[in-house]
Amino acid sequence: MDSWAVQQRAERDWEPEHRERGSRADRQLRTVEVAIPPWIGGLSYEPGGAEARAHDGALIAITRLDAGFGEQLAPRSSSPAPPRAAPTRR
Predict the structure, then answer these.
(1) Which pLDDT tens digit goes with each residue over 2-42?
(2) pLDDT tens readout for residues 35-79
(3) Which residues, other chains included, contact 20 with Cβ-Cβ below 8 Å and sequence gap of 6+?
(4) Whole-number Å distance between alpha carbons of 84 and 15
(5) List of residues 6+ apart from 9 with CB closer than 8 A
(6) DSSP-H helix ranges across 1-90
(7) CA pair distance 55, 2, nearest whole angstrom
(8) Structure letter (DSSP) for residue 83
(9) 85-to-44, 63, 67 alpha-carbon distances in Å
């Protein structure tokens, strides 16, 4: 597996939408330090051993929770929920 890149930091200009709100220090803020996450889209993640077992256990637990309490846990909305695909086994 490729090693994952580290998070970078950079300073960016800050222009708040509503300067009249907040403390004086907030209103006078001109720059902020931001964290820039690494681009990981091209990397692969292949858990093994204990990690793979933990992932499988979590998937099973979520599937059981959804099967038993899915209707109660579904978001409240005026539109009907979309049909759910049946879980697949590996």
Answers:
(1) 566 778 999 999 887 766 677 888 888 899 999 998 888 78
(2) 998 888 788 888 899 999 999 999 999 999 988 888 877 776 555
(3) 27
(4) 43
(5) 33, 34, 35, 36
(6) 24-27, 50-73
(7) 21
(8) P
(9) 25, 11, 12
